[in-house]
C-alpha cells in the first residue's frame, strides 16, 4: 500500500485534508513532524507523496511549504483540496479558562484566533508549536495548559476536555492543501485546472510586469502571486504564481515558454484539477483551436503555401 506523509501527529487539519486527497486509492498515512520533513520523505522515495498545507483564506500562504517546495530537488503538486478550518480549545480535565497560563498551537492557527485570545486569554503565554495536534499532544503530556486545535483532535487526545469551540476570528475560513510527489506523469487536463510555478526574476525595471504580461496577453487568469526572499541573496525574490489552466493547454505552454525565456529561472510546481472544478474562462483568441489554427497558418506561410 503506498505511504503518504502528512504534517502530524494524528488530528491535524493536514491529516483530514490528506485523507481527502487520497480518498481514491488505498494509502497508509505517515505522520511527520514538519512540512520539510514530509517533503524530504517524498524526495528520498521513502513515501510516494505528501499532503501539505499551502494557503489559508485568512492568514495567507504557509511559508514553510513554499520554501520547502523550491529549496531542494523538484516536486510537483498533483491534486488540491480546500477544507474549512475551525478551532477548539483543549485542556486537562478540571482546568478553567481563567487558569490557563500557557496556550500552544501552530502559528497559522494562532494568527486566526488572535481576537479570541486577546479577549478570553489576555494574560496567557502563547507558544508556537509544529502543528495544532502537536499542541494537543503537548497539553496531554502536561507541557502547556491549553491547545488550540482542530475539533477532531478531541478524538485523538481523549484525555483532554474541550474548553471552548468555534473560536476562529473569521467564520468560514478555509485552507488549501496540496498532494505533492516526485516529478513524473502529470495529471490529465480537465478544463478546470490550476498551474503553479516559482519564478526568479532580475532586479530590473519592468521584469515583474513583463512576466505578468505574458499571462494576461494570453488571457490567463492569475489566481495568486506571492514573493519569498531568495535567502542567500538579500533583495532577490522568488515569485510563486498560480494561474488557471494546465501546462498541456496551448496558451499555458506558450506562456510558460515565454517565462522560461524572460526569467532567471522557472520551476514548474504542477498542473492539477482545481478544487472548485470551475472551468477556466478562455478568450476566443486563446482557445486550443485558435492556437492550432495559428500554428497551421504559420506552417503554411513558412512553406510558401499561401498566395
Ligand atoms: O497544524 C495543523 O493542524 C495543520 O494542519 C496546519 C494548519 C494550521 C492551521 C490552519 C490550517 C492548517
TrEMBL record:
Keyword annotations of the record: Amino-acid biosynthesis, Aromatic amino acid biosynthesis, Lyase, Phenylalanine biosynthesis
Keyword Protein transport: no
InterPro entries in the record: ACT-like_dom_sf, ACT_dom, Chor_mutase/pphenate_deHydtase, Preph_deHydtase, Preph_deHydtase_CS
GO cellular component terms listed in the entry, alphabetical order: cytoplasm
Pfam family, one: PDT
CDD domains with a match to the protein in the record: ACT_CM-PDT, PBP2_Aa-PDT_like
EC number: 4.2.1.51
GO molecular function: prephenate dehydratase activity
SUPFAM superfamilies noted in UniProt: ACT-like (SSF55021), Periplasmic binding protein-like II (SSF53850)
Pathway: Amino-acid biosynthesis; L-phenylalanine biosynthesis; phenylpyruvate from prephenate: step 1/1
GO biological process: L-phenylalanine biosynthetic process
Database matches in PANTHER family: PREPHENATE DEHYDRATASE P PROTEIN, PREPHENATE DEHYDRATASE-RELATED
Protein name as annotated: Prephenate dehydratase
Classification of source organism: Bacteria, Bacillati, Actinomycetota, Actinomycetes, Pseudonocardiales
Amino acid at each position: 500500500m503506498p505511504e503518504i506523509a502528512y504534517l502530524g501527529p494524528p488530528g491535524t487539519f493536514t491529516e483530514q485534508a490528506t485523507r481527502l486527497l487520497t480518498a481514491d486509492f488505498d494509502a497508509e498515512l505517515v505522520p511527520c513532524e514538519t512540512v520539510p520533513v514530509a517533503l524530504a520523505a517524498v524526495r528520498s522515495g521513502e513515501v510516494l507523496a505528501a499532503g501539505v498545507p499551502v494557503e489559508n483564506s485568512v492568514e495567507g500562504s504557509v511559508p514553510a511549504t513554499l520554501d520547502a517546495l523550491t529549496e531542494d530537488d523538484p516536486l510537483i503538486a498533483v491534486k488540491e483540496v480546500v477544507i474549512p478550518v475551525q478551532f477548539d480549545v483543549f485542556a486537562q480535565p478540571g482546568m478553567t479558562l481563567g487558569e490557563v497560563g500557557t496556550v500552544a498551537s501552530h502559528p497559522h492557527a494562532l494568527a486566526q484566533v488572535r481576537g479570541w485570545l486577546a479577549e478570553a486569554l489576555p494574560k496567557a503565554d502563547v507558544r508556537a508549536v509544529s502543528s495544532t495536534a502537536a499542541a494537543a499532544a503537548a497539553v496531554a503530556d502536561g507541557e502547556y495548559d491549553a491547545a488550540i486545535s482542530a475539533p477532531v483532535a478531541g478524538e485523538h487526545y481523549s484525555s483532554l476536555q474541550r474548553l471552548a469551540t468555534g473560536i476562529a476570528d473569521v467564520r468560514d475560513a478555509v485552507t488549501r492543501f496540496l498532494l505533492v510527489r516526485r516529478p513524473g506523469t502529470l495529471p490529465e487536463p480537465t478544463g478546470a485546472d490550476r498551474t503553479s510555478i516559482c519564478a526568479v526574476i532580475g532586479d530590473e525595471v519592468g521584469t515583474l510586469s513583463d512576466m505578468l504580461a505574458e499571462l494576461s496577453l494570453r488571457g490567463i487568469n492569475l489566481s495568486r502571486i506571492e514573493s519569498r526572499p531568495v535567502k542567500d541573496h538579500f533583495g532577490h525574490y522568488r515569485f510563486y504564481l498560480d494561474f488557471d489552466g494546465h501546462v498541456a493547454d496551448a496558451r499555458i505552454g506558450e506562456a510558460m515558454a515565454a517565462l522560461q525565456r524572460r526569467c532567471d529561472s522557472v520551476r514548474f510546481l504542477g498542473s492539477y484539477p482545481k478544487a472548485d472544478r470551475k472551468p477556466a474562462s478562455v478568450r476566443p483568441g486563446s482557445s486550443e483551436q485558435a492556437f492550432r489554427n495559428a500554428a497551421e497558418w504559420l506552417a503554411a506561410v513558412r512553406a510558401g503555401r499561401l498566395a
